[in-house]
Amino acid sequence: MTDLATSTPSLFDHVASADAAIRHFGGRLAFETDVSDVRGALEADAPGFVLVDTRNDRAWAQGHVPGAVHLPTRRIRDEAADVVPAGTPVVVYCWGPGCNGATRAALEFALLGHPVKEMIGGFEYWVREGFAYETADGVVQPAVDATVNVAGTGTGTGTGASAGVSAGAVSCAC
């Protein structure tokens, strides 16, 4: 019989206490949201925030989340007041998890006094989850990337807007 206390892998040589983990992960949820929760909120009559695509003009033209406004990160400081009413909550996104553009944009909105969250996964995961997006030529309905999401299970069990979706829907399988 193995004693787990003495055979713990080095991965847990330096682990936070439960209280520190609660503060850390609770803090992350205060600053981040995901594409499934954003989609669910946008489908509500009044989502309660403005979704801002912070990518450049060329990326916006390739496709963007329906309902998003376009405000590249470099223009936020000078143009946000023209696009987002003062104090309005904002959710920002950029290309995807390999880019910190949305993080920089979130900081800019915070400096302007907006409550702000970053949509983790960005546009890449919006598309990979199979959510429709807009281009100048119209709406595109991408196929679901099965490595990211499970199509047709309706097994969303999260606490966000995507929880409890009906059978046949695409949802976060977390």
Compact overview of the structure:
By secondary structure, this protein is α/β, with parallel strands linked by helices. The protein is 31% helix and 14% strand. The chain contains six helices and seven strands; from the N terminus they run αβαβαβαβαβαββ.
Protein architecture, described:
The protein has 174 residues and is α/β, with parallel strands linked by helices. Helix content is 31%, strand content 14%. The chain has one domain: Oxidized Rhodanese, domain 1. Strands 1-5-4-2-3 form a five-stranded parallel beta sheet. The model is unreliable at 152-171 (pLDDT under 50).
Q: Which labels suit this protein?
A:
Rhodanese-like_dom_sf; five-stranded parallel sheet; GlpE_sulfurtransferase; Oxidized Rhodanese, domain 1; two-stranded antiparallel sheet; Rhodanese-like domain-containing protein; 174 residues; Rhodanese-like_dom; alpha/beta
Quote the distance from N terminus to C terminus: 33 Å
Q: What's the total helix number?
A: 6
Mean pLDDT: 85
Please give the share of residues in helix. 25-40%
In N-to-C order, the SSE pattern is HEHEHEHEHEHEE
CATH superfamily: Rhodanese-like domain
CA-atom Rg in angstroms: 19 Å
Organism: Agromyces larvae
Protein name: Rhodanese-like domain-containing protein
Outline the secondary-structure elements.
Layout: H1 18-31, E1 32-34, H2 35-42, E2 50-53, H3 57-62, E3 69-70, H4 76-83, E4 90-93, H5 101-111, E5 116-120, H6 122-128, E6 133-135, E7 138-140
Parallel strand pairs: 1-5, 2-3, 2-4, 4-5
Antiparallel strand pairs: 6-7
